[in-house]
Specification:
Blueprint lengths: L5 E15 L6 H9 L5 E15 L3 E5 L6 H8 L7 E6 L3 E4 L12 H11 L4 H15 L14 H14 L4 E5 L7 H15 L4 E5 L3 H7 L2 E6 L2 E6 L1 H13 L2 E8 L2 E6 L3 E8 L10 E10 L6 E8 L4 E8 L8 E10 L6 E10 L5 E4 L7 E4 L9 H6 L9 E6 L1
Parallel strand pairs: 3-7, 3-8, 5-6, 6-7
Antiparallel strand pairs: 1-2, 1-4, 8-9, 10-11, 12-13, 13-16, 14-15, 14-17, 16-20, 17-18, 17-19
Helix pairs in contact: 3-4, 4-5, 7-8
Length: 407
């Protein structure tokens, strides 16, 4: 891969902070501790050998639990922190939106804050002039721009700060936990903007706990856990792994290393396999048939949830929550599902399967490598009949049935 196609290169980055373990006001005590090898602090390793590339045009998601190191990584990419090891290379003008309102002065007007924030982001006055109208229009604050920021409501401040970040004409936009800004109407506007940016070819790095947003906007993602890369690649797989990790119980042991408790995930479902039995490609006159099998390692209730996703448009065509299947108990389970697919045009579908628990917590998921593809080709409409092709773009009807093969 050519380096000219890389927007951000994170090359084996490690970062730690020094946390004081004792305090002393005596120079003598400090010197004695030094000679004894007592540092007076311990190193908290936040990132450990993080490595990935963000290509130009990527909408790249970074996910992980609180304290996993996501925000620290963004601050290193934004050149706020310097890593102890490794390097970060950024190709292009970078606009970071890590904390709402950072760099805003409440004693200045909204207009003055836009220009000051633009200058802090590295833009000239002429460049801010060119962006100003778009920023104000997106924030919907035209009549308030000559008022001091301290007279703005918190929601108005959020809208202005967010608008400055996303309307600044940078090559790379970094967003940290900003999908819940503003009221419902403003969130819809932000959603439209993200969809537009996704298709614009501009580079975006998004940190979020919203896995639906990862699947909706991102084309690549990485999961950070305890400062390490746990999963990277397909956003569906990364988002599902995150959801799975937050649903699987964690047991702690009495063994401790570096004052940190070791954690061990407890699996309850294993060996999930999805097998497509129907031929592919197929026509709407035929049926989709597939087998799902998995092992339950504990005496628990499980449920199968699956969806058929249009690969080209990345939207659900069919979604089924099979809560009526009796799946209580442990052991090997195998089911067969059959449904018809009337009234759809040519489609490429991805079959995605998840096993949920009694409280709808995720117990297992089929990753991209275990997600069969279903190709549907119409054979009953002439290719030159554009009207018929357009009107026959319905969705798969909910008419499937389950067969229990093994319980």
């Amino acid at each position: 891969m050519s380096n000219n196609n890389i927007a951000v290169k994170v090359d084996h980055v490690s970062k730690y902070f020094k946390l004081p373990t004792e305090s002393t006001h005596s120079l003598r005590t400090a010197m004695v501790n030094r000679f004894r090898g007592i540092k007076g602090y311990k190193e908290q390793h936040v990132l450990r050998d993080i490595h990935f590339d963000v290509e130009k045009g990527d909408f790249f998601g970074i996910v992980g639990r609180n304290g996993s190191g996501k925000s620290t990584l963004l601050k290193i990419i934004s050149q706020i922190y310097v890593p102890e090891k490794g390097t970060v290379t950024v190709n292009g003008k970078l606009v970071s939106f890590i904390e709402l309102g950072v760099g805003f002065n409440p004693e200045l007007t909204g207009r003055e804050n836009v220009y000051m924030n633009g200058a802090m982001l590295g833009f000239t006055t002429e460049e801010v002039d060119a962006m100003y109208d778009d920023i104000v229009e997106f924030a919907e604050l035209k009549e308030f721009m000559n008022q001091k920021l301290k007279n703005y409501s918190s929601g108005m401040q959020v809208r202005l700060a967010f608008s400055v970040a996303i309307k600044a004409e940078g090559d790379i936009l970094i967003l940290d936990e900003v999908l819940a800004v503003g009221d419902e109407a403003f969130q819809r506007k932000c959603n439209d903007y993200f969809l537009e940016r996704k298709n614009s070819g501009k580079t975006t790095i998004l940190v979020t706990h919203d896995m639906a947003a990862v699947k909706k906007y991102c084309n690549k993602a990485v999961l950070i856990e305890d400062g390490l890369v746990k999963a990277i690649g397909d956003p569906d797989d990364v988002a599902n792994q995150y959801s799975f990790d937050n649903a699987v119980p964690v047991e702690t042991t009495d063994n401790k290393e570096d004052d940190e408790e070791e954690k061990q995930e407890v699996l309850k479902v294993d060996n999930l396999e999805v097998k497509l039995l129907s031929k592919s490609p197929m026509t709407p006159k035929e049926t989709i048939m597939f087998d799902i099998s998995y092992d339950v390692l504990d005496d628990i209730e499980t449920h199968i949830v699956f969806s058929l996703t249009d690969i080209d448009r990345n939207i659900w065509i069919y979604n089924d929550n099979a809560w009526d299947i009796p799946t209580q108990g442990s052991g090997h389970k195998k089911y067969r599902y059959t449904c018809s697919i009337p009234n759809v045009n040519d489609l490429k579908l991805k079959l995605q399967v998840t096993i949920l628990g009694k409280s709808k917590e995720m117990l297992a998921f089929a990753n991209t490598a275990n997600a069969p593809l279903v190709v549907i080709n119409r054979d009953d409409i002439p290719l030159d009949d554009l009207s018929a092709l357009d009107s026959a773009s319905g969705i798969i009807q909910r008419n499937g049935k389950w067969d229990i093969l093994s319980v």
